[in-house]
Design a protein that fits this description.
4-stranded antiparallel sheet, alpha+beta, rod-shaped
Length: about 150
């Protein structure tokens, strides 16, 4: 006699317990991925803002250096290098479609015979309508005239 094997027509459940993901597990995974993506987006927004501020600072520094070069090229006794009051001289300039306020303060020191032999020049550049701060440049300029002690 032959024994016939009975065919099992019902599907068997996997014995190791893997049955796939539930809706809850999938939703939690999506929330975690969304939080990570939003974090990356905020980093991009932050970097775009900082790049714009860096551009403003770079342009302001260029304005300050250009103004400083004008003062370096002037003679030591030129009216451009006349000492200012403590509030300084204010001018407004434009560069790359941006407006800047330039505050120049010149202080005389080391007087010899009533004439200054050293000038301290402070240039402060502030963008109009922007809160990125200011750029400041400070330098000293000495006369080429030999003093009485030589």
């Amino acid at each position: 006699m032959r024994m016939r094997q009975k065919m099992n027509t019902t599907s068997q459940k996997p014995s190791n317990g893997d049955r796939g993901f539930t809706i809850l597990e999938t939703a939690i995974a999506l929330v975690v991925m969304m939080v990570a993506a939003l974090g990356a987006v905020s980093i991009f927004a932050y970097s775009i803002e900082n790049n714009a501020s860096a551009k403003d600072r770079e342009l302001a520094m260029g304005v300050a250096q250009q103004h400083l070069e004008q003062l370096r090229n002037a003679a030591f006794t030129d009216d451009l290098l006349t000492a200012t009051d403590p509030a300084g001289r204010t001018t407004e300039v434009s560069s790359a479609d941006r407006r800047y306020v330039v505050l120049t303060t010149i202080t005389d020191s080391d007087l010899v015979g009533g004439q200054p032999t050293l000038k301290t020049i402070r240039i402060r550049v502030m963008p109009v309508g922007n809160t990125m701060g200011t750029v400041s440049v400070v330098t000293r300029r000495a006369t080429t005239v030999v003093g009485p002690n030589r």
